[in-house]
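Troubleshooting: if your tokenizer reports a length mismatch, compare your output against this known-good record of 458 residues.
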Amino acid sequence: MIFLQTKIPRDILHAMNIRKPFEEKIKNDTAKPKYHFSSPSGLLLDVWGGIYKDSKYHLFYDTNYDNDPRRMAGAVAHLVSDDMISWQELPFALVPEEKEKGELNLNDGFIVMDKQNKPLMFYTRCFEDINVNREHVAVRGSDDLLLWERINNNKAVLTMDNHGGPQFLSTWSDVVLFTENDRTFMIISKCTRTDDNQDMIPIYEAVDDTLLKWEYKGVFLEHTGECINFVKIKDKWVLIYSPYNNPRYFVGSFDINNYKFNVEKQGILSYGYVSQGCKLYDISRGFYATSTFKGEGDNTYIMGWISGFMDTMDWNGCVSYPRMLDLDKENNLIMQPAKALENLRKEEIEFNDTVDLGRSFELDITAKLQPNESFEIGIEDSFKLEIKNNHFRFNDIEFDFECSECLDIKMYVDVTVAEIFLCGGKVSVSRCFKQIKDRTPVTLKTEGKIIKAKAYKF
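Known-good structure output:
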């Protein structure tokens, strides 16, 4: 896909040119995953804006393109892919309007096709002056999603000072839009009321089809975190957010008359949030700050930001592999690797006690474990996965989980990062680790009975 530079606004080209020397410096870092899209330089964070259009998947992420220590989320970077695995980076969608508006950070947003089937983006404007409250800004996109222009005379569509609802503390960020019964709603995360210190997610309804005028309708849910998603799966609505800990999910129904989300079931979306310092960032967040979207065949996909890379050059963060979302009969949220990942398989190997799989591979294992029987997978000093008595441990991540007598594991390893799925996708874990050395064997040990043990080299 080739784009003429003359089409790209000057401020975007300038920002991309600032980043080029940093990219050149780190592009050959051996700690970079081979099949995940990882940060070209600096910090990649918060994956958002996933959308499937014209047979292509688009995804956006926040990046500190100039390594400015005052900010984390500078430019809005843009990726495109045919399969959600091989990503091409497009020109930045937006950079801060520092001189015109005093913008410092462009926080997570949302992309929707409006009533005229035109792309419309919303993002949170954060100011260099910390005494100026945040605003939500609308941006019109070209049909190919390449060019983006702030609209509404560059004015915010909602401001903390005048949004029709209660006063909030200063965060108020990360917009999500959804439609029910041909009505369009907006919810916003990171909200805490100033009068009673209560966390909440406010809800607004579009006044007209322009989606530029909104009316406050009340409290959607008395929870909050950051980077919320709200998506319909089968006949249920699913809310996902990242609460500065392992991201959570809630399954329930949306009461359109009272503007309330009624929770029927909740759980942990993914494990991996640990307070272990790493380069450019002080917390390893695992699979975090996610984006859900409908794709080919109306399947529901989710992708997220994985951070916590260690011993790297001046970069941190990657985009996860694509995952499919579904609900089981008990309305538990199921998250499984997308079928497109099968295209990465180059060689199938029967996995015995010890085997060299290279630096990027997939494991598909089913084992029957009796109480007190252990199960282990490891690679020297990179990682060790241990399961016993329904207790899981992967390096410094550990938790208890419910599982049947037959334990099934799908594990995707890529140089310095692992994505793990247990119990048919009810449980998932993501974690970075020290890079795998060439020709380092993977070991499998268990006191239980192996029913299936396949490995695929990538």
